[in-house]
Amino acid sequence: MRSSTQREIRTHFHEISTGIFWPSDLSDYAAEHRQRWGESDLSAQQIVKFLLKEGLLLKAEFESPQYKPIVRYLRGKPSPYELAVSLRHDSFLCHRTELTLHGLEAPCPFGKGA
After folding, report:
1. What distance in Å separates the CA atoms of residue 109 and residue 114, rounded to the nearest whole number?
2. 93 three-class SS
3. Which of 11, 17, 32, 60 is the most buried (most CB within 10 A)?
4. What is the pLDDT of residues 82-95, one digit of tens each?
């Protein structure tokens, strides 16, 4: 990977304060930019390896005996709620949780519904 490409990737990810990326997000990023960089053979794996080495991403692997491992790449310090929602496409938090997270409602003690 050329130093100019490394610089562009570094700059792009420095501008992101917090983020959670699926492996497919990073593949899409590579596919979208590799022609512009003039590096048609640059793979998403090479970009991920570079970002991990530079400390711009952290690999998070979620494991369970009931499911296949789930890999996400983290930028910054996402909240546990953001991590939970990232585990599946189209996930969401219930309205009450969202209200609490945004400070619009007090937290409900565990086990005590409204």
Report:
1. 10
2. coil
3. 60
4. 888 888 888 877 88
In angstroms, rounded to a whole number, what is the distance separating the alpha carbons of residues 65 and 59? Answer: 20
CA distance 6 to 70: 27
The token pair at 66 is: 């009931």
What is the residue whose two structure tokens read 């219930």? Answer: 94
Q: Which of 53, 44, 4 is nearest to 21 (CA)?
A: 44
Calpha distance 56→85 (Å, rounded): 22
Q: Among candidates 53, 43, 38, which has minimal Cα distance to 5?
A: 38
Residue segments in the chain with a per-residue pLDDT below the cut of 70: 110-114
Give the span between the Cα atoms of 96 and 92, in whole angstroms: 12
**Which residue's entry shows tokens 């997270």?**
101
Rounded Cα–Cα distance for residues 16 and 34 (Å): 20
Domains of the chain: 3-77 (1.10.10), 78-108 (no CATH)
